[in-house]
Structures are given as structure tokens and as C-alpha cells.
């Protein structure tokens, strides 16, 4: 059996504590749009990185630049996912109606 820690609204920032359920939904919608855009960029970079990898010895600096962009985008996606997780918890604590997201 694992113990679950009860999360309270006090563990969120003051700004988050003041969010209404509708505001949480708006933020989640904006995060989804941002994540969708970044996912498209990451997929595009993945294709470019695979192609560039075959020519890597000749074009090393551009390959490195492409990989850095991809890693930045992946880091942004991680940030978005962390915020999404926090908003889901906040919505639950505030007993907002469940949405389909």
C-alpha cells in the first residue's frame, strides 16, 4: 500500500489560488495550443536531425544548432506538461466540474 499526500490549495501560488475554474480551463486550452505547436516543431526538427545526421561529419555546426532547437522545444513541452499537471490538481482541489481534457 502506498501513502498518498493530500494536496491543498495553500500549496499553490497566490495567483493560482485566485484562479476561477473558467480561468483554469482557459489556461489549459492555451497550453494545449502551445504544446500542439511545439510538437509540430519537434517533429519537424526530428526529420531534419535524421537527415542531417547522415551528413553530420561535413555539416557539424548546423547539426548541433538543429539539435539545440529541438532540445529547447522539448524543454518547453516539459514545462507545459508540468503546468498542465498543476492546473489539473488545482481544478480537482477547487472541485471544478470535470472537463473532457
Structure description:
- With 101 residues, the chain is mainly α.
- The chain has helices spanning 14-17, 21-54, 60-93.
- The protein has a domain at 35-95.
- The two termini are 29 Å apart.
- The relative contact order is 0.17.
Order of helices and strands: HHH
Mean of pLDDT = 77
- Give the CA-CA distance, first to last residue: 29 Å
Shape: elongated
Largest sheet: none
Radius of gyration: 19 Å
Instruction: Flag low-confidence runs.
Output: 62-68
The share of residues in extended strands comes to: under 5%
Number of helices: 3
SS elements, strand count: 0
Helix content: over 70%
Structural class of the secondary elements?
Answer: mainly alpha
From the structure above, extract its key features.
3 helices
What's a quick, concise take on this entry?
This protein has about 100 residues and is an all-alpha fold. The protein contains three helices and no strands.
Write the layout of secondary structure elements.
Elements: H1 14-17, H2 21-54, H3 60-93
Amino acid at each position: 500500500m502506498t501513502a498518498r499526500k493530500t494536496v491543498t490549495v495553500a500549496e499553490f501560488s497566490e495567483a493560482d489560488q485566485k484562479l476561477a475554474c473558467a480561468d483554469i480551463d482557459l489556461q489549459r486550452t492555451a497550453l494545449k495550443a502551445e504544446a500542439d505547436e511545439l510538437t509540430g516543431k519537434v517533429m519537424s526538427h526530428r526529420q531534419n536531425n535524421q537527415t542531417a545526421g547522415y551528413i553530420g561529419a561535413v555539416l557539424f555546426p548546423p547539426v548541433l544548432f538543429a539539435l539545440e532547437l529541438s532540445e529547447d522545444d522539448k524543454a518547453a513541452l516539459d514545462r507545459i506538461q508540468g503546468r498542465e499537471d498543476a492546473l489539473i490538481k488545482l481544478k480537482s482541489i477547487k472541485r471544478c466540474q470535470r472537463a473532457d481534457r
